[in-house]
TrEMBL record:
It comes from the Eukaryota. CDD domains: Glycosylasparaginase. One of its GO terms (cellular component) is lysosome. The lineage of its organism: Eukaryota, Metazoa, Ecdysozoa, Arthropoda, Hexapoda. InterPro entries: Ntn_hydrolases_N, Peptidase_T2. Belongs to the Ntn-hydrolase family. This is LOW QUALITY PROTEIN: N(4)-(Beta-N-acetylglucosaminyl)-L-asparaginase-like. Keywords: Signal. It comes from Diaphorina citri.
Amino acid sequence: MQILLLLFIVFLSYATRAAIIIGTWSGGFQQAVQAGAAQLGQGGSSLDAVEAACRTCEELQCDGTVGYGGSPDEHGETTLDAMIMDGTRMNIGAVAALRRVKNAIGVARKVLENTKHTMLVGDQAKHFAVSMGFPEESLTTPDSKHKWRAWRDNRCQPNFWTSVKPDPKTSCGPYKPLSFAHRLDKDTDSNADIGQYNHDTIGVVAIDARGDIAAGTSTNGTKHKWRAWRDNRCQPNFWTSVKPDPKTSCGPYKPLSFAHRLDRDTDSNVDIGQYNHDTIGVVAIDARGDIAAGTSTNGANHKIPGRVGDSPIPGAGAYAETGVGGAAASKMS
């Protein structure tokens, strides 16, 4: 998981208090924040400012990661996620995997204001949007078509499949799940020698004539006939996430740094970067002191259709509480 947060801030001074809006990134994102600031400058609410900022980014297709024509899924279709949160009333509206409607943040606000629900998804979210007056139109562009075809021509690399056959690192599928035995064999740490004679225990359970039950165990633990094991560079052993490499060394070991573990654990089949996934995240405080927050994104490039990211999830993509504060973040998952 990679978490990214960059802020552009606008302050607007009033006689009683300052209205503030912050948002992620620069470029088109900065223009979006300025659109939100214009709403605040006209006396608009924090909800108006957040919606205006996210809508502007959707229209500008900020970095290709927000709005239509970006991040095509495995079928070549762009879908949108968005949320908006009213930090005064603690109400939320969100949409996810929204198809064929460009103004995702506008639909999210309709969920907030015109339903008792928190989130609508997929085709049903599209039907709701159309009923609320939003036009239905394709979100595909020549650029998104080109990206999708190039990805297909590259054997669908990278992708988000795991524990399937054929191998998702060399094939476009269609995929079927691996059997449990196959997954167990694949996931077993090759540095651990597992078998009856390198570890075991006597375990006993007894019930007596009165119906009383007792249980017990006895063992001498896992083996390593010490000298031969040391001569074999302490192989196998039970260390992990340490340096030097426990597969080639006897130590002494020190824990890896968090950054080193994160880099090591990241799936090499997933390309993580600013331009293959991102979000506009916005937090605004209006002249009345009300706080709102929101996000909008077209998700991860080449995602499996139906995937919902963190951005439209309250408390993950954004959160606001008047009198306390607000936050927005972007991550890969």
